């Protein structure tokens, strides 16, 4: 695949989503976040991923507005994602939560809205709310996050609209091969959060050797591995040089042998919660 920073992939409904975006998990409201978004957009990022629980939607919105103004862009040039938190799940509560996120962001619509976690007994009613928002034209695409195969199968038994995205923890220590195969076969685009395992893979010797071969960093190798697996990725950084480094993954390609070597690092290790035992 010939990826570039502006490259996009079509979701099941034809909406195009950038392959690479900026994640803002655990970045607090304030000037640092605003500047990070402005730096990312200036360099060429067009996708920003946040969530209600991150508590930073207001600064994300400010950063988006300033970045649009600074770079002569329009709102339609950017792809903005947020997520409904577990405390707001359920049909009516989700409808209200969506409006709250729009208000905090200062936006008229989102490009993508996700159910953050598959809370048992709640995600079906929550999905109905997302379908309502989507049918009303208030969001361009809808999806889920942290859903395993059995969650997706259960949801799709009753859903009118199939999830377009499943955003999950995905990195060389958690390759989720069965889930990746299932989503590809089902027409659901997989998206990686915590692609760098919160920095825990940056000193890995095998990844270091592959990185040295290409004159790249370990982070760049991992992000390239995501892309070559057909997985959208949203690395987090607030530092301009890291934001640029994370996007400098389009001028090299991992060989089949290198991809397989990275795949073999899988240990089914998570840094986040287990979706089957999530009780937040």
UniProtKB/TrEMBL annotation:
Pfam families reported for this sequence: Aldo_ket_red
Molecular functions (GO terms): oxidoreductase activity
Active site: 54 (proton donor)
Annotated InterPro entries: AKR, AKR5G, Aldo/ket_reductase_CS, NAD(P)_OxRdtase_dom_sf, NADP_OxRdtase_dom
Domain called NADP-dependent oxidoreductase: residue spans: 31-267
UniProt keyword terms in alphabetical order: Oxidoreductase
CDD domains recorded: AKR_AKR5G1-3
Residues carrying the site annotation Lowers pKa of active site Tyr: 83
Gene3D superfamilies in UniProt: NADP-dependent oxidoreductase domain
Residues that coordinate or bind substrate: 116
PANTHER family in the cross-refs: 2,5-DIKETO-D-GLUCONIC ACID REDUCTASE
The family this protein is said to belong to: Belongs to the aldo/keto reductase family.
The protein's name: Diketogulonate reductase-like aldo/keto reductase
